[in-house]
Amino acid sequence: MMMRCYSCIILLMVMAACRTTQPVAPSATAAGNFGHNGAAWAALWQQRAGEYRALCFQAYRLARLQLDAELREPSVLPRAIVTDIDETVLDNSAYTAMQSGFYNGYTKDTWFAWTSRADADSIPGARAFLQYAASRGVEVFYITNRMEQERKATLSNLERWTFPYADDAHLILQQQTSAKGPRRESVAKNYNIVMLLGDNLGDFADVFDRRQPDDRSAAVDSLQRAFGSRYIVLPNAMYGDWESALRNYNNGLTPQQKDSLYRASLKGYPAEKVPKKL
User: Fold this and answer.
1) Are 210 and 249 in contact (CB under 8 A)?
2) pTM of the model
3) In what order do the strands lie in the sheet with 231-233?
4) Residues 6+ positions from 263 with CB-CB distance below 8 Å
5) Which one of 3, 11, 217, 229 counts the least CB within 10 Å of its CB?
6) Residues 183-197 pLDDT 10s
7) Which residues, including other chains, have CB under 8 Å from residue 54's CB and lie 6 or more apart?
8) Is-contact 19 98, C-beta < 8 A?
9) What is the CATH T-level fold of the domain 51-273, as seen in this structure?
């Protein structure tokens, strides 16, 4: 009984922390299992952990230092920064908290309903950095896998937080494919892309697209010098291609099948080495 009450209290904390979403009481079953709801814990961490804010400020401070170094070098083409939107400049943890409170995952309908509110918070440090970049003559392009029907609300949300270059010319949405390489190439035709910002490896280079977990890690190792200089990564434990890769990008799996795959991917140590309770 005490564990059930404790879980209920934690879930209410998550809902209260959603600054832009009205809390709705979840079912007793969902509340009782909150401690095992990974997405909810990730949303709670993103909303309430000072460590999360510290990582974001750290990433954007590093970005500014690297940009200053870049601006000391000559450039034939005008400079540009390419950034992702979700969990890079806009915080969607309220959506994850609401969905996970009912043990529901992502669906297009609920996601579109969320983004139509134009109510996402800003990621710590993002606005200040991009405003600084704009003040130094660096244009900002937002390459996102949001859809065309989300354009108006997305621009409204960016404008709400006074992000620079929040206009149709600089917002590049998903069209035919989620791969961002062709869209990055379209910007590179006229600009020197000096920095890329994102929370997912696919925000940085094609080599990460639809690769298996070990291959993604190997690609990170081969490009390690780019991270912290040209590639600036923001933390996101709620979702991403890291999770999709574990299930081989199969969106048709049942929750039970996903659970089995995730458990099989997790490293532990032999049970006989677990210390006995005193």
Assistant:
1) yes
2) 0.85
3) 171-172, 139-143, 79-83, 192-198, 231-233
4) none
5) 3
6) 999 999 999 999 999
7) none
8) no
9) Rossmann fold (3.40.50)
